[in-house]
Amino acid sequence: MTNVTHLDAPLIVGAGVAGLSVALGLDRSFTVTAPEMGSTWWAQGGIAAALSSDDSPELHASDTLSVSGGLAVSKVVEILTDGGAAAIERLVSLGAEFDRDDEGNLLLGQEGGHQTRRVVHADGDATGAEVMRALTAAVDASETIESLEGRVVDLVIVDDRVAGVVTADGKKRTILLAPAVVLATGGAGRLYARTTNPVGVTGDGIAMAGRVGARLADMEFVQFHPTALLAGKDPMPLLTEALRGEGAKLVDPHGRRFMDRYHPKAELAPRDIVARAIFWQYDRGSGAYLDCRNVLNFHERFPTVTAHALSVGLDPTEHLLPVSPAAHYYMGGIDADANGRTSVAGLWAVGECSSTGVHGANRLASNSLLEGLVFGARVAADVGHDQVDPAGQPMAPKEAFDLPLVAGPALEDLRQIMWDRVGLIRTGDGLWEARNHILELDSVLRRTVAGRVAADLSLMVVLAALRRSESRGGHYRADYPEPDPIQEHRTLIDPTQVDLVPVG
Ligand SMILES: Cc1cc2nc3c(=O)[nH]c(=O)nc-3n(C[C@H](O)[C@H](O)[C@H](O)COP(=O)(O)OP(=O)(O)OC[C@H]3O[C@@H](n4cnc5c(N)ncnc54)[C@H](O)[C@@H]3O)c2cc1C
Predict the structure, then answer these.
(1) What is the sign, positive or negative, of the torsion defined by CA atoms of 314, 320, 323, 329?
(2) Could you tell me which of 219, 251, 289, 439 has the fewest CB atoms within 10 Å of its CB?
């Protein structure tokens, strides 16, 4: 008999910037989180917000739209950029300490795709850790938020409404029933062999939402960060975009700059363009390095990057840093409206696991911490109005109870195929090869919880990428290198609900 616990308030799965923002906005809530850290802790560059006198939410919205490949939804973007100043104020009121000048004004960084300086940061390049410190302290001090630890493996349905989750601890399963469920489980970068995402960022929430039939969106759109440190580490250490904002240059092995051949903004071109330029450097048998030697006070301003580089014997003030693109941010995910509502009653999604159209086909740098803060607050307000105590028979996918958690070597094969064939340069032939290879691995992958997630998601990424026979934002097809106006729309997928069995 599986243990069933009835919670008397909404349950939030995930405790990154998005999940904790929801929790802090509700009168009462529960969070449940896997032990591995999500991406928020690792965020370096900062939070974009229109704060300076030469900036405005409209300008920030226009920058967001212009890198989005025409797919961002302007009313959702406006909500994001209008909320910037209030989100920063709120974090400051919770005790977050951002970098300031001698007069106490917030220091604003410059990043690619932004027309002006608007990136708030902490401890130079440790913004995510400071955001998490402030949010976690507020949650710990709250008497109305209860934090649980557990790996959620599936959603529970009662009377066609999401009404809880199944958590796993080894072979033990527990059912948590709740009047509303919010998924805030982060992105899916671990689908790729080269990624900046920490080990917990496996796309679990997206896969489990799909299994109960929630609509998914824009699954082909993965953002590859141009500059991860190429030094044999997994995850690959990120060399924040802010470095290029502060004057670091991309150079070939002879120290010659190459970005001006690809875009008028050179090193500050949108991420997808910089990432592909670096890829082509390697493809031509050359290489790519970040030259940070002209960045003033480097060690003091970029302590996180300094520590990563020194750990592999490189000092950024003396050495060129070898770089490679790496999967970094997932624009695809659970289709959600501007209040985080999904296509299934009782289920909300927020943060990187959601796809609201706020980023379209390509995310503007430093917009995702802001997304978690702004939409987290909106989800909290909406969830507060729609709660139903689950009274009927709970149902869940059968596999939730049968499978071991940890995946075997087949998952590493899958990650390599995704990098080789479904990475930043895609072709129809390569995508078909990836599809066939993933199907060969399918039966082995499906023997574990982690493998099942990866099999489902990777196939959806491949099929969406095959269907989009054009290039747009993070999705680049070498066989269709131009955007096709007829395909200027989001990709929506309605997965078939898997068979559910009575539980509890
Ligand atoms: C190295 C790096 C640097 C970045 N720098 C920036 C930046 O400077 N600015 C910016 O805006 N963005 C940046 N990003 C992106 C940004 O950090 C993320 O998009 C954002 O933090 C996502 O927040 P989230 O709350 O949606 O998810 P996360 O912070 O990833 O949190 C997900 C949570 O869900 C939990 N979880 C996952 N699966 C399960 C499960 N099955 N059961 C239970 N719990 C689960 C995790 O444990 C975690 O608590 C960066 C990302 C990386 C990796």
Answers:
(1) positive
(2) 439
Q: Which amino acid is at 371?
A: E
| The pLDDT of residue 2 | 80
- Residue 1: pLDDT band (50, 70, 90) is low
With a 6 Å cutoff on the Cβ, whether 184 touches ligand 1 is yes
Q: Whose CA is nearest to atom 2 of ligand 1?
A: 43
CA dist., res. 405 & res. 22, Å (int):
28
AA identity, residue 252: D
Residue 479 clears pLDDT 70, i.e. is over it: yes
Please write the tens of the pLDDT for every residue from 201-211.
999 999 999 99
378 lines ligand 1 (CB under 6 A): no
Tokens of 474: 């993070």
Q: What is the pLDDT of residues 265-276, one digit of tens each?
A: 999 888 888 999
Residue 241's φ and ψ, nearest 5 degrees, are -55, -30
How many angstroms separate the CA atoms of 438 and 441, rounded? 5
Active site residue ranges: 271
Contact 377, 82 (CB under 8 A): no
Three-state DSSP state, 199: coil
Q: What is the DSSP letter of 423?
A: S
Helix axes 17-25, 368-383, angle to 10 degrees: 30
DSSP-derived secondary structure letter, 382: H
pTM exceeds 0.85: yes
What one-character-per-residue DSSP string does 266-311 give? Answer: GGGS-HHHHHHHHHHHHHTT---EEE-TTSTTHHHH-HHHHHHHHH
* Ligand 1, atom 27, residue with closest C-alpha: 186
The encoded tokens of residue 370 equal 């802001």
Quickly list DSSP for 21-40. HHHHHSSSEEEEE-SS--SG
pLDDT at 95 over 90: yes
Judge if the beta carbon of residue 363 lies within 6 A of ligand 1.
no
Q: Hey, which of 398-402, 475-479, 495-499 has the most confident mean pLDDT?
A: 475-479
Over the stretch 334-393, which tens digit does the pLDDT of each residue have?
A: 999 999 999 999 999 999 999 999 999 999 999 999 999 999 999 999 998 899 999 999
Instruction: Report residue 207 CA to chain centroid gap.
Output: 14
